[in-house]
Automatic annotation (TrEMBL):
Keyword ATP-binding tagged: yes
Name of one Pfam family that matches: ABC_tran
Alphabetic keyword roster: ATP-binding, Nucleotide-binding
Lineage: Bacteria, Bacillati, Actinomycetota, Actinomycetes, Bifidobacteriales
Gene3D superfamilies tied to this protein: P-loop containing nucleotide triphosphate hydrolases
Protein name per UniProt: ABC transporter ATP-binding protein
Entry annotated with the keyword ATP-binding: yes
Residue intervals of the ABC transporter domain: 2-237
């Protein structure tokens, strides 16, 4: 479903007098098979959102190749089978939740009874049924996150790309959403998720740990813990990036 081959991404300006570009991704190789849930895990600035932007075709790699369902951006055939939830809500504040879902559903080819049924299902999934007619401008941040997830899922895509999908949500709703993610992968859907929450990362089939633009581990959570001898993923990351046991005062 997703493939990175030797991907390098740099930002900045290259001039005849030198290359002052910042390398955000440095030779990334990655394969995400169908029916798989992969978590991109790493600190801020590690390159997670850049990888998401490359997958969505919002950016083009400086070097190397990114393919989605065998196509390169702008994905002429694959685009309609991708659902995307960005970190910042891409919603229309001056219309209701139901109208947002209707608009994005129609853009993705839904119509008639099928569209209305999917709108109802996404409102129920996000616990927004009672607020379906409320303007999105009057929604809380958590409600907007839930609606954004519904927008990403409304057309039942084969690939879901979710950038911090559960940030700011109540624990019980997070558990409900991750249970739904598991159901989707069992049905053959592919999910790529970024998160800072370690217990969420452990629910994924595989984790790609990013550090300074490189993948320093790519394996199931249990394998990473076993290979590093760590008690949790936080400790495992410190082992893999070489800072485990380092005196903070010596590196400050």
């Amino acid at each position: 479903m997703i493939r990175f081959d030797g991907v390098v991404q740099k930002f900045g300006t290259k001039t005849p007098f030198g290359d002052n570009r910042k390398t955000v991704l440095d030779g990334v190789d990655l394969v995400v098979p169908r029916g798989h849930m992969l978590c991109l895990l790493g600190p801020s600035g590690a390159g997670k959102t850049t990888m998401v932007n490359l997958i969505m075709g919002n950016e083009i790699a400086t070097a190397g190749t990114v393919t989605v369902m065998g196509e390169v951006a702008p994905y002429p055939k694959a685009r309609r089978w991708i659902g995307y939830m960005p970190q910042d809500e891409a919603l229309y504040d001056d219309i209701s939740a139901a109208e947002n879902l209707r608009f994005f559903g129609a853009m993705n080819g839904l119509k008639g009874r099928e569209l209305e049924e999917r709108i109802d299902a996404m409102l129920e999934f996000g616990r927004l049924t009672e607020h379906r007619k409320k303007l999105v401008a009057d929604y809380s941040g958590g409600m907007k996150r839930r609606l954004s997830l519904g927008v990403a899922m409304i057309h039942d895509p084969d690939l879901l790309v979710l950038d911090e999908p559960t940030v700011g949500l109540d624990p019980d709703l997070r558990l409900q959403i991750w249970a739904e993610f598991k159901k989707l992968t069992k049905a053959g859907k592919t999910l790529l998720v970024t998160t800072h929450v370690m217990d969420e990362a452990e629910r994924c089939d595989e984790i790609a740990m990013l550090h300074r633009g490189k993948i320093i581990a790519l394996a199931p959570p249990r394998t990473i813990l076993a290979d590093t001898g760590a008690a949790n993923l936080d400790e495992a990351f410190l082992v893999l990036d070489g800072t485990a046991g380092t005196d903070p005062a010596a590196t400050s």
